[in-house]
Design a protein that fits this description.
2 copies of one chain form a homodimer. Chain A is of the alpha/beta class. In chain A, the strands form 3 sheets. In chain A, strands 1-11-10-9-12 form a 5-stranded parallel beta sheet, sandwiched between helices. In chain A, strands 6-5-4-7-8 form a 5-stranded parallel beta sheet, with helices on both faces. In chain A, strands 2-3 form a two-stranded antiparallel sheet. In chain A, helix 9 links the parallel strand 7 and strand 8. In chain A, helix 6 packs parallel to helix 7. The two termini of chain A are about 35 Å apart. The mean pLDDT of chain A is about 90. Chains A and B meet through helix 5, strand 2 and helix 9 of A and helix 5, strand 2 and helix 9 of B.
C-alpha cells in the first residue's frame, strides 16, 4: 500500500537540486536501427510490409487499413451519451482557443517602394499519430485535428494502432468525425510514420506529421525529417511539474501528479514546493486517490523516477526553468510571482 | 564560354515534369558517424577537442575562441563606409518587418469560468551558426539576430569559422554589433554545434540553435535535438524557383538564378516558364552576367543540376507546390494567379 509515494528531496544547494532535475537521456542506438529497417521494409514492400508489422506488433492481420464509413457511423452509437457530450464540449472549447490564435497577415512598407508582407497558408496534407494502448487518446485527436480544421488543411489523416479485433476505439472515431478528419487508418508504431512519409498503395504520403508516441514513433518522426517530411517536434515521455504552496489543495495536487504518472511507465511527475507539510499531505492523498485507479500498475512504475523537491520559494522559478517541463501546473497563493519568473515550459 | 547554360526541358506530361523536380536525397551514413564522433570528442575533451578540430578543418590554432571587444571595435574601421551604410539600411528594414510580426497574447473565456490565455516568452539563450567560406554572410547574422533582439533573448551567441589568420570577417562582426549580439565565437562546422549543445570550458550551452550550414552542420543540428537542444530546421542546400513569363526582364531572371547558384556547388536553381523564348534569352543573359563573377567556378558546378522547365501556365502552380521551394521568385504579368495557387514555399 505504500508504493505510491513521491521521494521527498530537500537541500539548500541549488546545484544539488538541479542535479536531481535531469530527465533520463534518450539516445537509443538499437531503436534507430530497428526504425531504419522498418522504413526500408515499407519502402520496398508497401502495404504488405505494414500488414506484416501490424500482425507482429498489434496481433491482427488487416487487408484494408482505412476505417470504413460504416465503422465511422457505428461509433456514433457505440460511444455513450455522456462521453459524447464531453467530447463535444471539449471540441467547442479547443476550437475557440485555437480560433482566437489564428495568425494575421501583415503588410508593411519597410522603405519607400519596398512592400513586405506575409501570407499564412495551411499545410495541405496532415498526418496525425494517435498512440494506442489501453487509453483511447481522443483528446489528442481534438487538440491536433482542430488546428488543422481551422487552418483549412485539405487532408487530415489519423493513424492509430488497431485493437486485436482490428477495430479502433469508437471514442477516437467519434472525435475524428467531429473535427472533420478525412481518413482514419488502423496503423500504429514506426510503420505508421513510415507509411505517412513514404506512401504505400493504400496510403498517400503527407506533408507534415503531428502527434505523440513511444520511442519508436519518435525516432521514426526524426527519420521522416531526413526523407523530406516535416514533423511537429520529437516528443519525449510525458511529464508534469507542479508548483504548489500551503494554499494548494493537496488532493488537487495529487490528482495532477497521478494524471501524468498514469500515462506510461516512463512518465515523470515532479512537485516543487516550499512547504514540507504539503509534500507529506500530497503523498497521503496520492495513496488514497490511487487505491482504485485502473492504471495503478503503470503509476507504480512511473513513480519510481518521480519526486518532490522542497526548496525556497525564491529558487523555484529558476528550478522550473532549468527543468523546462512539458506540462506546468501552478497552485499557489501568488501565481503571478511564478508566472513572471518562469520562461521555459510547454503548457 | 557556354558552360553557364540551364538545360531546357519541355514536355506536356505532368508526371514527367514532376520527375525532374526532385532534389538529390541527403541520407549520408558517414556524415552521421563523423558528426557523432565530433560530439563524443567535444563531450570528453571540451575546448581542446574544439581546438584540434579547428586546426584540422580551419587550419588555425586558437587558444581563445571568443572574438574580443577590441576585434569588435576594429571591425567598425575595417568595413568600408558604403557597406556599413548598406548593412544599417538592411538592419532597419529587417527590424521593421519582424517587429510587425511580433505575436500578441490572447485571452479568452472558452466557457463560463474557464479562462485560457497565451503568453509569448523569448527563448533565453540563442546560438546562431554563420557559415564561413569565401562569402561573409552578414545578411544571415541580420536575419537571425534581429528576431532574437526583438523577442528579447538574454544571450545571443554567433558561431562562425575563423579565417586562416584566426580572424572573422569584419562585416560579420559589424552586423553582429548592430544587432546586439552578445558573443561571437570563432568556431565552425559540427564542432560549433557540438559546443553550443554540450557546452565547454569557454562556451556555455544554448537553448536553441539557428542558422544554415553544410551537411555536417545540418547533421550536427539533428543530433543536437537528441541531446535536448532545439533547432530551427534542418537546412538543405540552397535553392530557388523562379517563375517568369514573357513580361519578365530576362536579365533580372538570370541574376536571380545566378545569385542562388553561386551559394554552393550543391545549390539548385529552377526556372519555370510558359515562354520558350524567355528561356533562351535567360540562358544568354546568364552567360553575359556570369562572365566576370568571382564565384563563377561554383556556378559551373551548381548549374549542372539546375534547369528550365517549359510548361503550360495552368500547370505551373501545381509544379511549384510539388517542388516546394526554399526561395520563390515570381516575375510575371499576373503574379496574383501564381500567388493564389502556390501553397508550398519557404519565402
Amino acid at each position: 500500500m505504500d508504493k505510491i509515494q513521491m521521494k521527498i528531496l530537500e537541500t539548500t544547494s541549488l546545484t544539488e537540486i538541479k542535479s536531481y532535475l535531469n530527465r533520463p537521456s534518450n539516445m537509443q542506438e538499437d531503436v534507430s536501427k530497428i526504425v531504419r529497417e522498418i522504413f526500408e521494409q515499407v519502402k520496398e514492400k508497401g502495404d504488405n510490409a505494414v500488414r506484416e508489422l501490424t500482425l507482429k506488433l498489434d496481433k491482427v492481420w488487416l487487408d484494408e487499413f482505412q476505417v470504413t464509413e460504416k465503422e465511422m457511423l457505428a461509433s456514433m452509437e457505440e460511444v455513450d451519451t455522456e462521453l459524447k457530450a464531453a467530447i463535444r464540449q471539449a471540441k467547442e472549447n479547443i476550437y475557440k482557443f485555437h480560433k482566437a490564435q489564428s495568425p494575421a497577415n501583415i503588410s508593411i512598407e519597410t522603405m519607400p517602394g519596398v512592400k513586405c508582407w506575409t501570407r499564412w497558408v495551411a499545410i495541405d496534407e496532415i498526418g496525425i499519430y494517435i498512440p494506442g494502448g489501453t487509453a483511447p487518446l481522443f483528446s489528442t485527436v481534438l487538440m491536433l485535428a482542430i488546428p488543422a480544421l481551422i487552418a483549412g488543411s485539405k487532408r487530415v489523416a489519423v493513424f492509430t494502432p488497431p485493437r486485436q479485433d482490428g477495430s479502433v476505439h469508437p471514442a477516437i472515431l467519434y472525435a475524428a468525425q467531429l473535427c472533420g478528419v478525412h481518413e482514419v487508418y488502423k496503423i500504429g508504431g514506426a510503420q505508421a510514420v513510415a507509411a505517412m512519409t513514404l506512401g504505400t498503395e493504400q496510403i498517400s504520403k503527407v506533408d507534415k506529421i503531428f502527434g505523440p508516441g513511444n520511442s519508436y514513433v519518435t525516432e521514426a518522426k526524426m527519420q521522416a525529417i531526413l526523407r523530406g517530411v516535416a514533423i511537429d517536434l520529437p516528443a519525449g515521455p510525458s511529464e508534469v511539474l507542479v508548483i504548489a504552496d500551503k494554499t494548494a489543495d493537496p488532493a488537487f495536487v495529487a490528482a495532477d501528479l497521478l494524471a501524468q504518472l498514469e500515462h506510461g511507465a516512463d512518465s515523470q511527475a515532479i512537485l516543487l514546493t516550499s512547504d514540507a507539510a504539503l509534500a507529506l499531505e500530497v503523498n497521503r492523498q496520492m495513496q488514497v486517490l490511487s487505491a482504485n485507479l485502473p492504471r495503478r500498475n503503470v503509476i507504480e512504475k512511473s513513480i519510481l523516477h518521480s519526486f518532490t523537491i522542497i526548496a525556497k520559494k525564491e529558487l523555484i522559478p529558476e528550478l522550473a526553468n532549468h527543468y523546462a517541463t512539458e506540462h506546468l501546473i501552478i497552485q499557489t497563493g501568488n501565481n503571478e510571482f511564478y508566472l513572471e519568473g518562469i520562461r521555459h515550459a510547454g503548457s
